Every structure is written in C-alpha cells, then in structure tokens.
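Model it.
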Amino acid sequence: MYWTEFLTIAVAHLFAVASPGPDFAVVLRQCVTYGTKAGLWTSIGVATGILLHVSYCILGVAFLLSQSPSFFSAMKFLAALYLLYLGFQSIVESLGSAVTEEVMEDNSSVDPRKALVLGFLTNGLNPKATLFFLALFTVVIRQDTPTSVQIAYGIYLSIATFIWFAMMSKILGHAAVRMWFLRSGAWFERVMGVILILLALQIVFYGS
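Modeled.
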C-alpha cells in the first residue's frame, strides 16, 4: 500500500546522499587521513544523525522549526561555525605535517567515539538535511501514514546512508587510494580545509 511512497523517498534520498556535501567531505577526510576504520565509524555517526532528523520529523518538531526562522537561522550558523572549525583545524594541522607510509600506519588507529561524534554532528547540524527531511515528511509522506511505517522509512534511510558511506569508506580508505591523495602531503589537508570552509559559507549565504 505504501510502496509508491517508499520508492519516492528512496529515489529522493539516493540523489541527496550521492550529492557532494559536508557528510561526504568529512568522510573523505577521515578515510584518507586515518583509513577505512575511521571512515566506517564516521559513516555510523552520519547514519545516526539521519535518525535524529527522522525523530523530530515524526514528533512534529520539524514543522515548528519551519515556523521559527530565528531558531532555524541559529541552527544554520551553528552548523557553519562547526564546519569552519573543522576547516581551520585541517589547515592548521597541515602546516607541520608530512605524510609518509609510517604516518599512514600510525593513523590506522582511531578513536571510534570521536569519529562517530564527528559524523553525527556533521549530519545532525546540517540545515540542508533538516530541509530535506522536512520536505519528505510534509510533502511526500502523507499525514495518514501510520507512525510505524514512518519509523520504518527512517530506519531504511539511516541504513541506506550507512551503506553508501561505508562503500565510499572502503574505496577511499584503500591503501593505494589513500597514498594517491596523500602524495600531495599537507596540500590535501589544506584543500579539504578550504572545502569545509566553503561549505560553511554556502550554508550561511545559500542555506535558507
């Protein structure tokens, strides 16, 4: 009965998750800098962030957010500040770094909790994700759709997000791929820092 609704959600989510954004940038940096394990834990964090968006949409908080421009703006600037912090941190760390195979081995051990929190905050604070899920739960999903079905949608979206970024982590975290990126040395970190800063500015000026 709800297959048409589900397929619409699945296709919309596929295009959304495949488009470059803060989630992809952070997972890419984690994979190249620390390896596949870091990318996978960051992906779990991103997927958990999806559950946050789904939860407040089901509870009706998303509607309240859409009716409170000041609160939404505050969240938007908070997300931008977080990305700015990550961007500048990446640039600062690159100033005294030289990447070698030994460094790659040392970076293979990562704190799963930090990686998970990084992914969760990156996705959870993303105002574009808020707008995406607001659109799904107000335009695509009907009001008479049972809560149990909406929860099932949310679980699917979270799992699908993890699968996508887990596949990306496997590819980007491969030793040969990492070395290809890291041969540029500190410039990779600087470029990633600039990308994160640009994403932050995009959220501030074009995120509404």
